[in-house]
């Protein structure tokens, strides 16, 4: 199709809103109720958009509608456009209120426990009115959010393969993954240190799909072992920590978690093959605000302290 058809004035923002809502609700009735418009208005919007694009966007089913392959492509871009507009409105509002754009940071266990909190504390000392949103998620979720401009940067374990081409990575330091248990865990008292020795304990593992989980699965395989029979999949630090302290569970975690908690300790079990690079992932195809750049500078400063004070290469 001729891409100029998208800019001849026939396709409007209301079409994007109507079409994405229809996809989310799965029916004309549901979309009409959410948007408080008539069903004919939804039908008309679909026909108008399909006329511009010259393809069918939805398949009509007995109980609703489903996007076609063409529709899925268009809807992905439509959601990005709408999200960018919402972000622009939020940024304008924030700039009017406090004189600075808000910062949105994605993170995972490796970044959330020490590195990012230290940087945020330092940021708030100099810019107390700056709004900062922290979103914790799996790498795949954070990669999608970064691509859609829902977050400005990601702080945590680096996973270049999980991000699309438009991402730039800054490696800050290496943080080993260690087996973390409570201080009085039986494995500590019995000096059980090999992976085979630990197989009968409950294991807390990151969920799939994550780079860390893939590497741990490969580690079990290389040791000639299957997966532990008793597994909890969890990446939320508060839940994970409570389970570790209250049970005989063990968890492969970033070293800082085990080193910085008085109720936890680390086994000497070798996990050398598990990735350990910690850093910042940023979009390569758009510029960052001054507020986001200030946070990045503070993250780099905090990383220098962490790398200096902890034996991360052991």
From TrEMBL:
What are the record keywords, sorted? Answer: DNA-binding, Transcription, Transcription regulation
GO terms of molecular function: DNA binding; DNA-binding transcription factor activity
Q: Would the keyword DNA-binding be found if you checked this record's keyword annotation?
A: yes
Q: Which domain of life is it from?
A: Bacteria
Q: Which GO terms describe its cellular component?
A: cytosol
Question: What SUPFAM superfamilies does UniProt report for this protein, alphabetically?
Answer: Periplasmic binding protein-like II, Winged helix' DNA-binding domain
Name the Pfam families for this protein: HTH_1, LysR_substrate
Give the coiled coil ranges. Answer: none
Q: Which residue spans traverse the membrane?
A: none
Domain HTH lysR-type residues, every copy = 11-68
Q: Which family does it belong to?
A: Belongs to the LysR transcriptional regulatory family.
The protein's name in its UniProt record: Putative LysR family transcriptional regulator
Q: Could you read off the lineage of the organism from its UniProt record?
A: Bacteria, Bacillati, Actinomycetota, Actinomycetes, Mycobacteriales
């Amino acid at each position: 199709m001729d891409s100029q058809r998208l800019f001849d004035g026939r396709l409007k923002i209301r079409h994007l809103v109507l079409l994405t809502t229809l996809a989310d609700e799965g029916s004309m009735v549901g979309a009409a109720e959410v948007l408080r418009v008539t069903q004919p208005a939804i039908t008309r919007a679909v026909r108008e958009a399909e006329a511009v694009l010259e393809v069918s966007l939805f398949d009509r089913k007995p109980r609703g509608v489903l996007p076609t392959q063409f529709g899925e492509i268009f809807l992905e871009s439509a959601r990005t456009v709408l999200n960018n507009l919402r972000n622009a409105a939020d940024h304008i509002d924030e700039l009017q209120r406090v004189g600075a754009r808000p910062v949105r940071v994605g993170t995972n266990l490796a970044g959330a426990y020490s590195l990012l909190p230290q940087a945020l504390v330092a940021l708030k000392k100099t810019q107390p009115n700056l709004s900062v949103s922290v979103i914790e998620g799996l790498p795949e979720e954070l990669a999608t959010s970064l691509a859609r401009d829902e977050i400005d940067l990601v702080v945590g374990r680096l996973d270049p393969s999980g991000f699309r081409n438009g991402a730039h990575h800054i490696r800050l330091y290496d943080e080993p993954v260690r087996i973390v248990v409570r201080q009085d865990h039986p494995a500590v008292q019995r000096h059980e240190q090999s992976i085979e020795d630990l197989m009968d304990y409950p294991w807390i593992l990151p969920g799939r799909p994550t780079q860390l989980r893939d590497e741990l699965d490969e580690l079990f395989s290389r040791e000639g072992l299957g997966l532990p029979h008793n597994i909890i999949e969890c990446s939320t630090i508060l839940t994970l920590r409570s389970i570790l302290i209250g049970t005989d569970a063990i968890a492969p975690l970033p070293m800082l978690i085990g080193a910085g908690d008085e109720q936890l300790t680390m086994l000497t079990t070798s996990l050398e093959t598990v990735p350990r690079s910690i850093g910042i992932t940023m979009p390569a195809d758009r510029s960052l605000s001054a507020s986001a750049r200030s946070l990045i500078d503070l993250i780099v400063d905090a990383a220098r302290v962490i790398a200096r004070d902890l034996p991360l290469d052991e």
